[in-house]
């Protein structure tokens, strides 16, 4: 790609139309597989651990995935239109330097998720082979090396790996799900509609929504090589269906496992529940989910690399090369591995707090980015000006920064996590509805702030700046 080699050479730079390739349906296996792994399973246990029953936790999982995936899938449609990775697209809303704010948030996600994945992988390997320590440094490092190796070969190979893994997981999950209907038994209380409890239900719903929403920061990284004539509806639905079914299905496996084996850790509960279907299925399901953890960690390393290069480009404009991309991957590998190796045994148990933090941080950004793309500029951007430190989008865009700040602040009274519980959340018994507040507020503030933009002039400047953008001298306007 870009150089005709098997290893991707492009990173944050624009993908010319001549290099666009792939089919839009390739998006569903990327995001189905992106969710079909142990970390997703861990999200589905939250409602059970907080005292909810199986029925209402399952409902919360489905509703949360429906909500979070909706916003995530709309970001996917930006890739074919702009030919750019997700995070670099934040410059028109936040400014050339102002976008560093959201990139810092993205790095928390990439590094935090991968550190969690590495610790979880060691625990899963211990479950499969007790002679491997649950905190094995060797397992943690080797797991990360395999994942970063897949990230290094890049876009096309990640797509291929995700397609193959998606078919494998569909087969295994189907066996587990059908068998579970006949062989896994639960106390009647687990299915009692009267067992609804607001706090576990809302905690599970918004944990699922947050988890799906967290994909927003890199979803168009995996659609940016698609031809520009791919329609918004096509890319939305292929992404939505893959991510929703992969996420909800895997979370529900976690919910079932937690209800069947309360008191066991995630990997052990999953193995126990699957073995109820037939002996040995537990190890098969656990091993396949571990493989999925490798591929999703590759996605995280890939996204971290693009974000680090975006940060470096802000400090000093750079020419994208394979060497720089590999160097950024090495930095991401070192950071997540250092955290994983130094983490305590309670690290996995704090995963819910990480999800809550990410929900709070991503909510204003996703509102601003989508509103700008679909309602303000309506897909009209200049690729060249996005990379111009003195360009039309400015170094600091007060509109995006103001909307982000207001959207975040208004959510604070609604926060409910291990780190902090706001007064309104306490009054609601600990229920967290911050996302429902932050999304509309950040969107409304940004829309109001953008009323001062001369959009006709903005579009004209963008079109003029990108004249001759394509090497063949073809059409250069970048529009949705």
Write out key terms for the chains shown.
480 residues, disordered C terminus, globular, mainly alpha, 20 helices
Could you describe the 3D structure shown?
The protein has 480 residues and is mostly helical. It is 66% helix and 0% strand. It has helices at 27-35, 38-43, 46-49, 54-76, 78-82, 91-94, 100-128, 137-153, 155-183, 198-213, 232-260, 266-277, 281-315, 322-342, 351-376, 383-386, 398-411, 423-427, 434-449, 455-465. Helix 1 (27-35) runs parallel beside helix 11, helix 11 (232-260) crosses helix 12 and helix 15 (351-376) crosses helix 17. The longest helix is centred in the middle third of the chain and has 35 residues, at 281-315. The protein is globular. The chain starts with 26 loop residues before the first helix and ends in a 15-residue tail after the last helix.
The helicity comes to: 55-70%
Question: Which parts are unreliable, with pLDDT below 50 for 5 consecutive residues or more?
Answer: 474-480
Based on secondary structure, the structural category is: mainly alpha
Oligomer: single chain
What is the mean predicted local confidence, pLDDT?
A: 90
Which radius of gyration do the C-alpha atoms yield?
22 Å
Q: The biggest beta sheet, please?
A: none
Q: How large is the share of residues in beta strands?
A: under 5%
Q: Could you give the order of the helices and strands?
A: HHHHHHHHHHHHHHHHHHHH
Give the overall silhouette: globular
Distance between the termini: 24 Å
Number of strands: 0
- Work out the helix count: 20
